[in-house]
Automatic annotation (TrEMBL):
Keywords: Endoplasmic reticulum, Glycoprotein, Membrane, Signal, Transmembrane, Transmembrane helix. The keyword Transmembrane helix applies. The keyword tRNA processing does not apply. It is found in: Endoplasmic reticulum membrane. This is Nicalin. Its main location: endoplasmic reticulum. The lineage of its organism: Eukaryota, Viridiplantae, Streptophyta, Embryophyta, Tracheophyta. InterPro entries: Nicalin. It comes from the Eukaryota.
Length: 568
């Protein structure tokens, strides 16, 4: 009986212990649930680069601050520990100017782009979209991009895309901010976390130039003595977010045109009876945004004797606009007899196609290394060259280089097709001595017709592929694809690898994952701690009473006897 009585308290002790463990597990699980990420999204960091040692772009990558909204941007609150979430649709560019001008330092900036501006968006492929709302967003993006890439920003700046989860978080943040109270550790709210290492310099970034060749009908002196016409486009891009810079129009449309022109002339040149007495050189160069550094290196790599055989070069840049007007940019004076001849040839074909071609002359300054157009690199080596573009004015450095606003939805396939036919027809009439004659060599519905499906497929690929040169490897899939395609239509195809030189230095860490957490306030934590502590005290008291008796519990809280009393 005595043994049985001793085992009863043990059984009574086990039951409360199990119940307490279960209760503690529930509390812990509740805490874990409160700390789980509400959502995780892909984000793309603002470019970080140096020009001649001067820092530009976002200088930090790691992010760990509470979220805020545009509601706070109009006040005088300290936002140095707040990440503002700003949809581009609602963007206040004046606030952006102030925040990047150090007058309103931020903890970070998350700019939300409309989902249809994503390179992965496939719902808007087809006809060019010129709706007023999208055009407005495009105009804002153009101005925003120039502000950001020319500023030294001491905090992380990321781009993301609107979706249901992010919009829901932003709506909650706006409601909280409307109370005038910043989200902090005391008040709770949402926390944005990007765990990214410190960005590192990209050592010796490479640029790749791809060229292909269609030899003309051999004469007695050999094909190398024949005159050569070069058709060239720069394929790489630059923008505020390298991982989003796909450049559908700026460089994309030009590359598509070069490939299609190569395909058309490969058909003509495959038959000796229709092969012209001109060599055709096709080039796709890199380093376009950086003073056409790749074009310069490519030209200098060519044998001087071969360069002297180049009759003229046609560079293609931004030809995907729905406008019916194109410009021919030249370095030689318009009065030059050869420039006149080339321009008249283009103008005659343009008139037949319902296009208008204007002539723009910009003299190059040999003492200034800066070039505005790709053809100017040819002109510096005394090679006649021109650029065909929808742009009437030469862009500034790092402007119109295929950034955030240059998306597939704003490019018109039909315009590229017309531009291709304009260039191909003008070249063919020059090659075959048919200037001034109305002969449609690349007639529609013929075997030599421009292929819209071919143009569309390559335009779709380029519009989904970021092409910022310093972030492309030597064997990048895009470079290999361009090489393979040119190999299908030309001969002696090779890829020239060079190191991007000059004054530019680039940093890595272009994309990451953003974790959005919903965090409870400190007040909640204190109440939770108080409740948990009270529960443990009650549980402890209960266990002592049931196992050892009330007297033992009281003795635990009784003041111990002093040393004198013990001695006595």
């Amino acid at each position: 009986m005595g043994n049985l009585q001793k085992s009863e308290p043990s059984l009574g002790f086990v039951i409360p212990v199990y119940s307490s463990v279960i209760t503690l597990l529930i509390i812990v699980m509740t805490c874990v649930e409160l700390c789980d990420a509400v959502t995780v999204v892909d984000v793309y960091r603002l470019v970080q680069y140096d020009v001649g040692g001067m820092p530009f772009g976002s200088r930090l990558a790691a992010l760990n601050h509470h979220a805020g909204s545009a509601v706070l941007s109009s006040g005088a609150a300290d936002l140095s520990r707040t990440v503002l979430i700003l949809p581009v649709r609602e963007l206040n560019l004046t606030f952006i100017r102030e925040s990047i001008g150090w007058r309103k330092p931020l903890g970070g900036l998350l700019l939300l782009l409309p989902l249809d501006f994503s390179p992965q968006d496939t719902e808007n492929i087809g006809e060019a979209d010129h709706s007023s709302a999208k055009q407005l967003v495009k105009e804002v993006l153009v101005e925003l991009e120039q502000l950001l890439i020319h500023a030294n920003i001491p905090y992380p700046v990321y781009f993301g895309f609107e979706d249901d989860d992010v919009n829901s978080v932003l709506a909650d943040v706006k409601r909280n901010d409307a109370t005038g109270q910043l989200a902090t550790a005391t008040t709770g709210g949402y926390k944005l976390v990007v765990a990214a290492p410190e960005p590192k310099k990209i050592a010796s970034p490479t640029i790749s130039n791809t060229q292909g060749w269609l030899p003309g009908l051999k004469a007695d002196g050999g094909s190398n003595q024949l005159p050569t016409i070069a058709i060239v486009a720069s394929y790489d891009t630059f923008g505020a977010a390298p991982a989003l810079s796909v450049g559908s129009d700026s460089s994309g449309s030009g590359v598509v045109a070069v490939l299609e022109i190569a395909r058309l002339f490969s058909i003509l040149y495959s038959n000796p009876k229709t092969r012209g007495r001109y060599n055709l050189l096709f080039g796709m160069t890199s380093g376009g945004p950086y003073n056409y550094n790749g074009t310069q290196k490519w030209l200098h790599s060519l044998d001087q004797r071969f360069r002297e055989t180049i009759d003229y070069a046609v560079c293609l840049n931004s030809i995907g606009s729905s406008s019916n007007e194109l410009w021919m940019h030249v370095s030689k004076p318009p009065e030059n007899a050869y420039i006149k001849q080339i321009f008249e040839g283009f103008s005659n074909v343009a008139e037949e196609l319902g296009l208008k071609v204007g002539l723009k002359h910009k003299k190059i300054n040999i003492s200034n290394p800066r070039v505005a157009w790709e053809h100017e690199q040819f002109s510096r080596l005394r090679v006649t060259a021109l650029t065909v573009s929808e742009l009437s004015v030469a862009p500034e450095l790092l402007e119109s280089t295929g950034g955030l606003s240059d998306k597939r939805q704003f490019v018109d396939e039909a315009s590229i097709s017309r531009s291709v036919k304009l260039v191909a027809e003008s070249l063919a009439r020059h090659i075959y001595g048919l200037e001034g004659k109305t002969i449609d060599i690349f007639a529609d519905n013929s075997s030599l017709a421009v292929n819209p499906s071919y143009i569309r497929s390559w335009l779709d690929l380029l519009s989904a592929t970021p092409r910022v040169a310093p972030f492309l490897s030597k064997n990048d899939p895009l470079i290999m694809a361009l090489k393979k395609e040119l190999t299908d239509h030309t001969v002696e195809v090779n890829v020239q690898q060079e190191v991007l030189d000059g004054i530019f230095t680039f940093y890595d860490s272009t994309s990451s994952r953003l974790h959005i957490y919903q965090v409870a306030s400190v007040t909640f934590d204190l109440l939770l701690l108080l409740g948990l502590g009270s529960y443990l005290i009650v549980l402890f008291s209960f266990l002592v009473i049931t196992t050892r008796g009330l007297d033992d519990l009281i003795s635990l809280f009784r003041r111990p006897p002093s040393r004198k009393m013990k001695t006595a």
